[in-house]
Amino acid sequence: MRNFGFVLLFLFGTSAFAQVSEDFDANSQSSIEAGCWEFDGVGISKPPTSKALNGGNDRPLADADLDGTGSASLASPYIKFDGSNTLTFQHKLLAANGTFSELEVFLEDPTGVRTSVFSHTYRSGGSNANGNPTNSNSESVSTSFSGYARVIFVWTYTSTSTNGYLDEFSLDGEYAADASSESDGYCPAQFDFTDTVCAGDQNVLYTALYNRSTESYTWSFTSASAGTIDDNISTNDSTVELDFDTITGDFQLVGTESNTGHQTIYDIHVHALPSVSHTIDSVCLDEPYDIELTLTGTGPWELQYQYTGSSTQTVTINSSPYTLSLPAEADTFTFISLSDNNGCEIDGGWLPTVTVPYFDKPAPVEIEVIE
Description:
The protein is mainly beta. The protein folds into three domains: 3-181, Jelly Rolls (Sandwich), CATH 2.60.120.200; 190-271, Immunoglobulin-like; 275-359, Immunoglobulin-like (Sandwich), CATH 2.60.40. It has one helix spanning 29-33; strands at 3-6, 20-22, 38-40, 42-45, 61-82, 85-93, 100-108, 114-124, 127-128, 137-143, 146-171, 174-175, 190-198, 204-207, 217-221, 227-230, 239-244, 249-257, 263-271, 275-279, 283-284, 289-296, 301-307, 313-317, 322-326, 333-339, 345-347, 358-359. The strands form six sheets. Strands 2, 3, 4, 5, 6, 7, 8, 9, 10, 11 and 12 form an eleven-stranded antiparallel beta sheet that branches.
């Protein structure tokens, strides 16, 4: 039986999410870019205590240069959201001037679709819009977004000459970026899933998350192969079909998007097929007898069988070994199928042939009575 799902903490265990945070205290844009933060018109600075956020207790910080008319942005690494997350951060302006200035926060999924989750207007029409913008603001933003996204801070400004400060970013999500592929702060996302299958399963489909028709995909196992990958299922190879070998263990299948480098990662556990062996003591014809069964796999098991003149019989076996008692008329016996608690099943073609070892009854003896 296939058991498929999102990976929960990371790799696929508990439901508690980690914390993704950045306080910019490294005071180095390059080192923070190495952690997959992308800067556009934003740098790192360490302002005087009197100018920094939170009474000067939070230095260094992200510093957006709001000079003239335009926009600046700061993007977090890709993060996995579970539908109930909270984003916290601090922000302010260095000086209250200009016609218009605003900070908006978006969640951007791997296809580039943005969802606005927060906005704060500092200046509008040449006046302060929400109090003194040079005062520190501490925000707590709840979101019901589920999936993968970057948090993007966007400053928009008109006829302005100031700086936008941001610090103490924290989000109860999971880091989901491939830092080994970082370029100027941009890192592709990694979408992790778990799957369980049975040895020898055929025609199992795997699909790239957030797949786009404009992209193409390549698929491979990271180390040992678990089977044959058929990539002739979809026009851009976003879906593949896998025929598993009769092999067991843990394997990793990766689908990589050609342009962005986003990866859909399936950690696959392949269960062994169940098996049964048997022994029968020699029995006399037309007498009931027992078959001693030894099973492998994960119990309980469901065994189907037939014997002479019977319909298909089904028995649930909770532990191995197991004694199966048969009636006297069961002079032939056949295994039909066996499945275990993992949902793995084998049919008669994989099950042993049973020969009932009968002793013939002795022939009648004529007794001559002499009078």
